[in-house]
Amino acid sequence: MTVGIIVLLCVLVAGMLLRMPIGFSMLASGIAYLLVKRQDLGLVAEQVSNGLYNSYVLLAVPLFVFAANIMNAGTVSERIFDFCRILVGRMRGGLAQVDILVSVVFSGMSGSAIADAAGPGLVTIRQMLKKPEYPRGFAGAVVVASATIGPIIPPSIPMIIYALVSGASVGALFLGGLIPGLLMALVMMVVVHFIAVKRNMPREAPIPLREWPTILFRGALPLSMPIVLLGGIYSGAFTPTEAAAVAALHALILAAVVYRGLTWRSFWGVVMESTRGSAVITMILAGSFVLNYAFTAEGVPQAMAVWVEGMHLSSIMFLLMVNLMFLVLGCFLDVSVLLLVFVPMLLPAARLLGIDLVHFGVVVVLNMMIGLITPPFGMLLFVTKALTGIPIGEIVREGWLFLVMLLVLLLALTLFPQIVLWLPQTMGYKTI
Questions:
Q1: What is the CA radius of gyration of the chain?
Q2: What 3-state class would DSSP assign to 353?
Q3: Is the previous residue joined to 155 through a cis bond, with omega within 30 degrees of 0?
Q4: C-alpha to C-alpha distance for 240 and 229, rounded to whole angstroms
Q5: 331: which residues sit within 8 A by CB, 6+ positions away?
């Protein structure tokens, strides 16, 4: 390891320990590297400008952020909740089952785990807390676990960022995440059923049949979003980036015209919140371009590939090693840092071993979603605590079974790539 890389890592870690915004920490560490190497500081502006200018796919990120915020502000979450209550509310532990199904529907529109927890997750957790049969730790655990489905089922903001750094097809990644996302929902519903039967949790009161048509119609409209997006992408009607604009328009029409749940004041709040969220992501991306320049200049990705080749690892052994690494790092680092700093270093080794980049991407993103619910610094744990006041310790104690089942599913995806690749290949994707 060279002096430049050591200085870069020290500045990066110091910035995070001092709670500096991660984008600024990454930029500062990149500048420190250039100073140590006595290179022109203008390279920072050059790398950032070229990276952002040449990354057309990045336009999708603020548009999906905007779509998620529109739906959270426009009563879409409440409509989806009522729709799902008809479908699974009569099951034992009905509200918890509703939350999982709501996450599946909402994930087809937002692509963000945080948006899922802060929107529909907050709606269902408030309903559960009204009933003594649902311990508050269990309510928080269900919401936290189900929110991880958001970035797996398309559309997905982390998969868009992964496509940027890997060159993998966004459409194939979206299709590759569909079956794993549904499997996540299935195993979570099994866990909820097991716990609900054991604790004799209640079923929801039946909704009068005369109300069904209205609730089903208004709640089913958001279901058209993933159909429109994936259908449009694979029919050639629009690109994945243009699909994000379609998603934003779709959400705006639903919230403002169909549901009439969006005022001019709330719309302005959505615009400002989306601007802030997009600016944070853009700053992190800017920092990552500088860091990736430093790592590439020092030959870190190539050295990683040579090291893996020298260890004579099989593709499965390499993926298991990657899983272990990201599961540990995910306890401490943000998803964007893992995607933009660590994934590029692993891609040459993955290509060397013949690992399909779509399979690799879905496995990596699922790893990061598990990190969001893993103490001590799982972001979803802190978001849920901030929104509801439920102590993190209670959420963790009630959520360990969900975590175990997600780890089992991660192992299955690692060992059986066709779970991820079958649907993309069926739609014409050619495995590399």
A1: 22
A2: coil
A3: yes
A4: 8
A5: 371, 374, 375, 376, 377, 378
Q: Which two tokens stand for residue 250?
A: 């779709």
Q: Which two tokens stand for residue 80?
A: 């989806």
Q: Are 274 and 66 in contact (CB under 8 A)?
A: yes
Residue carrying the six token digits 């998603």 = 247
Gap between the Cα atoms of 194 and 404, Å rounded: 14
Residue 331 lies in a domain: yes
Domain count of the chain?
1
Helix (H, G, I), strand (E, B) or coil at 409: helix
pTM of the model: 0.85
pLDDT in tens, 140-159: 999 899 989 988 988 888 89
Q: For residue 147, what are the contacts with CB-CB under 8 A and spacing of at least 6?
A: 103, 113, 114, 116, 117, 121, 372, 380
Q: Is residue 172 part of a domain?
A: yes
Q: Which helix (H) or strand (E) covers residue 310, if one does?
A: helix 300-311
Q: Which residue stretches of 18-119 are H helix?
A: 22-36, 42-53, 60-73, 76-88, 94-110, 113-118
Sign for the pseudo-dihedral over CA of 292, 296, 302, 304: negative
Give the structural domain span for 186. Answer: 69-225+299-426
25-44: pLDDT as tens digits: 888 888 998 888 888 888 88
Distances (CA, A) of 150 to 185, 290, 296, 363: 10, 29, 32, 15
DSSP class per residue in 215-227: HHHHHHGGGHHHH
Q: Can you tell me the distance from the alpha carbon of 315 to that of 309, in angstroms, rounded to the nearest whole number?
A: 11
The residue count for the chain:
432
- C-beta of residue 185 within 8 angstroms of C-beta of residue 100: yes
Name 136's Cβ contacts closer than 8 Å, sequence gap at least 6: 129, 388, 390, 394
Is 28 part of a structural domain of the chain? no
Residue 255 lies in a domain: no
Please give the single-letter amino acid code of residue 385: K
Q: Which residue would you say has higher pLDDT here, 432 or 239?
A: 239
Q: Taking the CA atoms of 126, 131, 134 and 137 in sequence, report the sign of the dihedral they define.
A: positive
How would you classify residue 96: left for phi > 0, otherwise alpha for psi between -120 and 50, otherwise beta?
A: alpha
Q: Which two tokens stand for residue 264?
A: 């001019």
Give the torsion sign (CA, 63, 152, 234, 256).
negative
